[in-house]
Amino acid sequence: MVGDEEAKKKASSAAEAVSRLRSVLTAAIPARWNRPVLTGTLFGHRRGHVNLAFQVDARSCPAVLVELATPTSTLVREMASGLARIALECERKEEKTTARTSLLEEPLWRAYCNGRKCGYAVRRECGPADWKVLRALEPVSMGAGVLPGDDPDGDIMYMRARFERVVGSKDSEALYMINPDGNTGPELSVYLLRV
Asked: For this UniProt entry, which residues form the secretion signal (predicted)?
């Protein structure tokens, strides 16, 4: 009996020590390390529109899937310059009777790429063709390439990377591509704004 009580005391003191260590380590970690990281995938046919999907992990349903009016080839040219910024702006609705929707749930945005207006972007549900591309890219953690296309539209270009999600307020969010090379700045940033 006495041995059981001593074992329980030792176990509880060890658990308490581990708990204290975790709290100290959590307090010491910079806030930027606690930001959520998403898997971002840009894909589209060479002459088609760009689709932008963000997922919690590679196997999950996209948290948001947006189709940009920008042709894939145009965005590839913009990204070849080394830095691309995509800004998506939606209208602020002054409805006091209903709760404001989440920024990721907005259905329509004005799209800008590197400061130039490039049409509109539409949030949509993930269809069978989108799932086919995302399933084919599941093993890819990061990179860019071309998937052979089965339809007459041709091959599908893609880029996949990890993105850090930063919520500024209920009306602004940013997604910064995490650069694996250790360079200082992201090569791609996506800004979601409600104006």
From this structure: none
**Cβ-based neighbour number of residue 157 at 10 Å:** 21
CA distances to 85, 95, 96 from 92, in Å:
22, 9, 12
3-state helix, strand, coil in the chain (%, to 5): 25, 40, 35
Instruction: Report how far residue 48's alpha carbon sits from residue 71's, in angstroms, rounded to the nearest whole number.
Output: 5
pLDDT in tens, 108-151: 999 999 999 999 999 999 999 999 999 999 999 888 999 987 77
Q: What is the pTM of this model?
A: 0.76
- Measure the CA–CA gap between 52 and 64, rounded to whole angstroms: 8
Do 27 and 144 form a contact (C-beta atoms < 8 A)? Answer: no
How far apart are alpha carbons 166 and 174 in whole angstroms? 5
Q: Residue 84: is it exposed, middle or buried by C-beta count within 10 angstroms (0-12/13-18/19+)?
A: buried
Classify residue 70 by burial, with Cβ atoms within 10 Å: 0-12, 13-18, 19+. Answer: buried
At position 120, the amino acid (one-letter code) is Y
- The CA radius of gyration of the chain, in Å to the nearest whole number, is 22
Cα-Cα-Cα-Cα dihedral sign, residues 158, 86, 194, 47: negative
DSSP-assigned beta bridge partners for residue 122: 67, 108
